[in-house]
Design brief:
The protein contains 15 helices and 15 strands. With 514 residues, it is of the alpha/beta class. The strands form three sheets. The protein has a six-stranded mixed β-sheet with strand order 2-3-1-4-5-6, with helices on both faces. A six-stranded mixed β-sheet has the order 8-9-7-10-11-12, with helices on both faces. Strands 13-14-15 form a three-stranded mixed β-sheet. The radius of gyration is 25 Å and the shape is flat.
């Protein structure tokens, strides 16, 4: 059975000119549609999916959709379990054993996993998010710091932690480095002694009581020994609904200030706070750790996070820069909206584009602030507009603010930009309206015929907000340019200024008659 879950973005590509520009007629027709009739039609389309082969995940998703008065659905956030430990103790092998399939790359070389990767796992009908972490850094001198930094980020964003130790080696100095951080957290920690392949190894495991993190649990990720008992304990430890994955409602909205070093992030925070809260120096990279600051702009209170500047690729960085990049990523994941600061006196760089892509991948709302506007001359202005048109064409939907962090000029314009982005980020479209939109769109501009077949969209729904995420059940693969066309029309009808949109496609075949 064919299936595809694919994120769609707004990047221009070949073939986009196939579909005409928007003239506003679609939005006008949607306004005239009776909501009750649209709701009834959506229910009928959903019922029609029973004629197609659906997997368990499809059924669970559809069961969460409540097409009622508002047409919204609110799925609970799955609890998050992070696996931490030094390199080559078998974290990824344990991930594969828990998942029941080979997802994480496993190799008998330390440091294969460099980034944190999340997977969906299930045990005894309870689903949770499993996060595999890396800790390897090419520079062996900084390995202890980098392992602890990765573990700290993972722990900060998890409901519970598996701390994996090699039972054949016992606790090492590097393990102790991670233990110091774990002792200071309020998250439940389960000590896992991996590579306990036989009873003799299990006897050695109990020396790990000395770590001070509770009872060690012997397992063999390679052979599966003890993993079922470990999963039973994990299910008892994890909450039913995540306390960290869900977004906080109420209180100041969280704003992450991002940008490459020395573009004016700390100056912006100081000007917004009205005093020198963060060290500002011409030397790039002054800020190492994120600095949370509650400030008032435009009569509203915001929580700003001034993050360390992102330099080059994280896994190539060393020492304090490596740690700063990890903390920046953690700050972004906690935030609701990111303000990416660009220095208008310099050419838009690949680092700037990578930071913007980092925000898009995280699914956070986006505002682009062009700093040092007071230093911009006419010649540079012409080049800047050309760079924006060429390099930032995929984020034309992001609100743009021209500011001077040093003087505070136009700082108040950040507020409406942030409010617009967050409002779009929170937006939910009722399922009835989504399907009415699809019906009008496909009737006017059907998918092109490919190899004698024309894919149809059977049903569509917005499964979540923050960011707006849509799922389309289809009879065949939709061309990339057609998916971009759908995303573009979604923006043109409902705005979504300042937020990325995710459109997942699920190709399902008609069930064979028996």
């Amino acid at each position: 059975m064919a299936q595809l879950d694919e994120r769609n973005d707004d990047r221009p590509g070949a073939g986009d000119d196939t579909f005409p520009d928007y003239d506003g007629a679609l939005a006008a027709r949607l306004d005239e549609i009776d909501e009750a009739a649209a709701e009834q039609r959506a229910n009928a389309l959903r019922a029609g999916l029973e004629d197609y082969d659906l997997d368990d995940e499809d059924i669970q998703l559809l069961d969460q959709i409540e097409i009622g008065a508002d047409g919204y659905t609110y799925a609970p956030a799955l609890p998050v379990l992070a696996i931490v430990g030094r390199p080559n103790v078998g974290k990824s092998a344990l991930v594969n054993r828990i998942l029941g399939r080979r997802e994480a790359v496993v190799q008998d070389v330390p440091g294969v996993t460099r980034d944190r990767v999340a997977y969906k796992a299930e045990w005894n009908a309870k689903r949770f998010t499993l996060v595999d972490t890396g800790g390897w850094e090419p520079d062996a001198k900084g390995i202890n710091a980098s392992v602890a930094a990765q573990a700290e980020v993972a722990v900060d964003l998890a409901d519970a932690v598996l701390f994996v130790v090699d039972a054949t080696v016992g606790a090492t100095a590097t393990d102790e480095h991670v233990v110091k951080m774990l002792r200071g957290t309020d998250k439940p920690v389960i000590v896992v002694a991996n590579k306990a392949d036989d009873e003799r190894r299990e006897l050695d495991v109990y020396e790990l009581w000395n770590l001070g993190l509770g009872e060690p649990h012997p397992v063999s990720a390679l052979h599966g020994r003890g993993v079922a008992d470990l999963l039973d304990l994990i299910i008892k430890t994890l909450p039913d609904i995540s306390a960290v994955a869900k977004q906080e409602i109420g209180g100041p909205r969280r704003v992450a200030i991002l940008g490459r070093p020395n573009v004016g992030k700390s100056s912006l925070l100081n000007k917004a706070a009205g005093e020198e809260r963060v060290v500002v120096n011409e030397l790039s990279g002054t800020t190492r750790d994120p600095v949370d600051e509650q400030v008032e702009i435009g009569g509203k209170v915001w929580r700003f996070v001034d993050t360390a500047g992102i330099r080059k690729r994280v896994h190539l960085q060393q020492g304090a820069d490596f740690y700063a990049s990890l903390r920046t990523t953690a700050a972004l994941e906690k935030a609701e909206v990111a303000v990416v600061i660009l220095d208008v006196t310099e050419q838009i760089s690949t680092q700037d584009l990578r930071i913007i892509d980092l925000v898009l991948e995280s699914g956070r709302a986006l505002v682009i602030a062009y700093n040092k506007w007071d230093l911009l001359d006419d010649d540079r202005r012409r080049y800047l507009e050309r760079e924006i048109e060429q390099d930032l064409a995929h984020v034309t939907w992001a609100p743009r603010v021209n500011i001077s962090a040093r003087t505070g000029r136009h700082l108040e314009k950040l507020v409406p930009a942030l409010e617009t982005a967050l409002e779009s980020w929170d937006t939910r479209i009722p399922t009835g309206k989504v399907n009415a939109f699809i019906a009008e769109l496909t009737q006017e501009h059907p998918h092109p015929v490919r190899s004698g077949k024309q894919p149809r969209i059977l049903f569509g729904t917005q499964v979540s907000s923050r960011p707006p995420t849509f799922v389309l059940f289809t009879t065949g693969f939709l061309d990339p340019q057609y998916r971009r066309f759908i995303t573009r029309r979604l923006r043109e009808v409902w705005g979504f200024d300042g937020t990325p949109i995710t459109v997942n496609m699920r190709v399902r075949e008609r069930r064979k008659r028996t």
